Amino acid sequence: MLKLSRTAVKNCKLLSVFKRSLTCSPNVRLSSSLLVSNCNSIKKTFTPINCAGSIRSYSNGPNAVKLTSEVYPNVHRNNHYKKLSSDDLEYFNSILSKQEIMYTGTGNNLQELDLYNEDWMKKYKGQSHLVLKPKSVEKISLILNYCNEEKLAVVPQGGNTDLVGASVPVFDEIILSLNNLNQIREFDPVSGILKCDAGVILENADNYLREHDHIFPLDLGAKGSCHVGGVCATNAGGLRLLRYGSLHGSVLGLEVVMPNGDIVSSMHSLRKDNTGYDLKQLFIGAEGTLGIITGVSILTQPKPQAINVSFLAVQNYEAVQKVFVKAKKELAEILSAFEFMDQRSIQLTKKHIEKDTPFPLEEEYPFYILIETSGSNKAHDDAKLETFLESAMESEIVIDGTIAQDETELQNLWKWREMIPESSQCQGGVYKYDVSLPLKDLYSLVEVVNKKLVEADLLGSAPKPVIAAVGYGHVGDGNLHLNVATRLYSKEIECTLEPFVYEYVSSKHGSISAEHGLGFQKKNYISYTKSEPEIKMMKDLKKHYDSNGIMNPYKFI
Amino acid sequence: MLKLSRTAVKNCKLLSVFKRSLTCSPNVRLSSSLLVSNCNSIKKTFTPINCAGSIRSYSNGPNAVKLTSEVYPNVHRNNHYKKLSSDDLEYFNSILSKQEIMYTGTGNNLQELDLYNEDWMKKYKGQSHLVLKPKSVEKISLILNYCNEEKLAVVPQGGNTDLVGASVPVFDEIILSLNNLNQIREFDPVSGILKCDAGVILENADNYLREHDHIFPLDLGAKGSCHVGGVCATNAGGLRLLRYGSLHGSVLGLEVVMPNGDIVSSMHSLRKDNTGYDLKQLFIGAEGTLGIITGVSILTQPKPQAINVSFLAVQNYEAVQKVFVKAKKELAEILSAFEFMDQRSIQLTKKHIEKDTPFPLEEEYPFYILIETSGSNKAHDDAKLETFLESAMESEIVIDGTIAQDETELQNLWKWREMIPESSQCQGGVYKYDVSLPLKDLYSLVEVVNKKLVEADLLGSAPKPVIAAVGYGHVGDGNLHLNVATRLYSKEIECTLEPFVYEYVSSKHGSISAEHGLGFQKKNYISYTKSEPEIKMMKDLKKHYDSNGIMNPYKFI
């Protein structure tokens, strides 16, 4: 790696001399499925999290996650929903093949459905006995129509990588998995428009596109497991939003099965269409509460020819903002990621990350920044980044830094950002808050939460329960991830953090969910971000389109 | 201007030698308000269109536009709507100042409201006696609440530059103008987020932003008149969509007054917010049929440091597509516009454009392309464009071309694209179709329409009524503008074109309205683009939120 230093900057030529060419392979960024960590693997493709410690402190046994209904005894099953009967099973068997149904029987042994009943964080667990995995949109239509008539509650499930308990049942809801709806439908290399089934894994879609010189306009850590339909249903943001914008802009059409079984499709190949209300927008971010997304038409982006990654150190959060403004201006059209991490994030990650990923800087600093550029001309991008870094170091905004010189180094730098969520969780548990705040106030939340935890005598060495409250995230999007790493889950920690965090975010006119959604975790807190008239309109919509309330109940609003 | 030639290309150095530096002023692109043409000016700021000829062939007198109700006798006033009474006027006078009300009295003399009753194309004319121009959101809320209770129909009106008759009344609807709601609320140069009233003129917003090193993420010919709220209400696309994406992505929040007077606001400063359904999306492109947009929060873009414009000639439409694919790949992140024009567009424009705007090429060609690049480094952009053009000419895809060498030349090149709409209209009238089509089929519509007009014996020299059917538009967005320039409006031409054009677009899975919306003109044709379930959902929404149907009636769906 090329280390940056003020000496190097003073002799500007040095930078150019040291710089080696970096050729860009199809997969320049680390995919979560490639991560190797200290943890044992739980799921086939997703970042492993079965860590030592008490992450399953709600458990009945050493490997059991406690049921959501036991952890939240105030949430009751709505008896408006019918319980699954043998007639229902008979119907599902009549329209689906054996490969499309998983049923545990009526006993208490739900283990074979654990992967479907439990969320990725092992924080929520439902009690569904039935998973349906239909292979066609028409079958989904038949299923929903039947469930609606019979008042059987349904949870749509994509890759089940949700972080707010939205993709697993709370009680005995039927799980409707999109796993078997996983075909690329078509791709037009001239317009860059991709049409695919909702169940296509994001990484598979991206790999397919890369073979055709394009990329998916969204990237995130869970790409090895999450579905294209799932990222739309949750309006995922991720690492490329700064460059390619939100899914509300890039999704061109959706195919959706409504609760009554109607198939509503706007799966066209058009970048512009102003004929009537843009209905598809309602389903982007609705977390499967209005209908099930079964197909996606999306504008993809040309594959960048060159990628650079730089890892920088700054003295304080004010400097983070200064570097961001400077990068927006000087790197402008080639800036593709601007991530920041605080010292505590990196300290946690150091304990957890594999030993063959050396920390890129010699010393520790209060804040770190990862900048990625993507462009069509390597020499131009190098020159822009070099000029930018020289001036940032000369003016002493940036105090230390390094630039990746090959793909391995590039991946290693990304790893220091991408391993933070896992590192926060691996020592017991984690309380995750994903919030939007005006940029100037972004980091203040981490500071007040640390203060609050100290005052409550919860933060410190064992046996105190909280290890650290760390902050990192997508500065470019005003999106902070506050992770409170704990040695165990406890109501005392939860009550110290909530609703305090939501109240603080609300007082700064932020959003209590920047990209993770509401799900089960935040459904009671929407009023911290949304006004009464807005919530009323949402309830109206939900009631209007899902009058029997069968879609993903106990969540959202 | 720097002329491109294959000789120049063969001796590559020549290009570099000839190239002079082009410094970029704050207003590099031609604003419509600066256009000077052969026409007399009608409105203060918008492109003049009061041309000689029979554009007002529906007129009762030399300067009168015929009433919509007379031209479309099958459309009847809905007597469910109350007629304006003295009590109503008394109420409006009680909440508004004199500057906020224009009332003609009950007589037939509507002239003083012509600017509000007539659309920009002089094709539609309503009969409203009352224009309300409230200065606050609260007053708009009171007005709508009253109108809803009293069943008084309302037409929201921004800059009144709509092209499908959406912004003027059909009968006696009250016009609610946003003209007096025109303040910038705040701008944050760090995040680039602008909040403003809906009635701010687009060009004013853009000028304000340029003073703060930013630009509005949308540009269009009507910028001198159209309102920020209006472009959101119509989901305008314009010239920068290729680069900055659609308003569904860049609008971060809206303040909307609902038909019952409720003020629903999501005017936050957040780039990401996943708490509940994204309600604001419903109002983007709804043409004021669900509520009135009164405030807009939008992500703006850093002002480019360098802009290049090149005007190229190619032999056929296939070559247009080839150049587009090549430009997307090689100009990639700096490509900010890719417009095409056919030979007939330019021939029409040559007759109309002022004499101090020489045609940039020596010969005529079947197709022309205008490429704009915007970036942060002039030298890099020049190098990219140069390499791109050299290879395009060497491979003989591009057969002639020129690059602007200073701002005047740059504006002149843009003029050849921007004057086409006006030129199509100035000899009598124009039938405008703004459609989306898959790229490969985009130009075929112009060919079949010309064929159809010849077969109907309508196209040719006077006295035949049609001068030419020309095609141009935003290739980057799959958006074709088909303009049928006529010597007069006639039912024979209209019946030859409609529904033929819509049927053809539908057969190619296109959209009958790419960016202009449905309005009055296309309301009956939505089923050519949208399916029954979609239309049903839209009608549901309309009924749900505007149960008395007071918002912009006789339009949309």
Short description:
Chain A is of the alpha+beta class and 557 residues long.
Task: Please explain how this structure is put together.
Chains A, B: Keywords: FAD, Flavoprotein, Oxidoreductase. Chains A, B: One of its GO terms (molecular function) is FAD binding. Chains A, B: Belongs to the FAD-binding oxidoreductase/transferase type 4 family. Chains A, B: Residues 124-303 form the FAD-binding PCMH-type domain. Chains A, B: Pfam families: FAD-oxidase_C, FAD_binding_4. The structure is a homodimer of 557-residue chains. Chain A is an alpha+beta fold and 557 residues long. Chain A folds into 4 domains: 2-30 and 312-333 and 357-420, 2-Layer Sandwich (Alpha-Beta Plaits); 68-177, Uridine Diphospho-n-acetylenolpyruvylglucosamine Reductase, domain 2; 184-302, Uridine Diphospho-n-acetylenolpyruvylglucosamine Reductase, domain 3, CATH 3.30.465; 427-516, Alpha-Beta Plaits (2-Layer Sandwich), CATH 3.30.70. The first copy, chain A, has 20 helices and 19 strands. The first copy, chain A, has helices at 6-10, 12-18, 68-71, 86-95, 114-117, 137-150, 202-211, 228-233, 241-244, 247-250, 280-283, 317-330, 343-352, 378-394, 407-418, 420-425, 444-455, 491-497, 500-507, 532-545, and strands at residues 2-4, 101-103, 130-132, 154-157, 174-177, 184-188, 193-197, 214-215, 251-257, 263-265, 292-299, 301-302, 306-314, 335-342, 367-375, 400-403, 429-436, 466-474, 479-486. In chain A, the strands form 4 sheets. An 8-stranded antiparallel β-sheet of chain A has the order 1-16-13-15-14-18-19-17, sandwiched between helices. Chain A has a 5-stranded antiparallel β-sheet with strand order 6-7-11-9-10. In chain A, strand 9 (251-257) and strand 10 form a beta hairpin. In chain A, helix 12 runs antiparallel to helix 14. Chain A starts with a strand and ends in a 12-residue tail after the last helix. In chain A, 59% of the residues are buried. The model of chain A is unreliable at 7-62 (pLDDT under 50). The interface between A and B is large, with 94 and 93 residues.
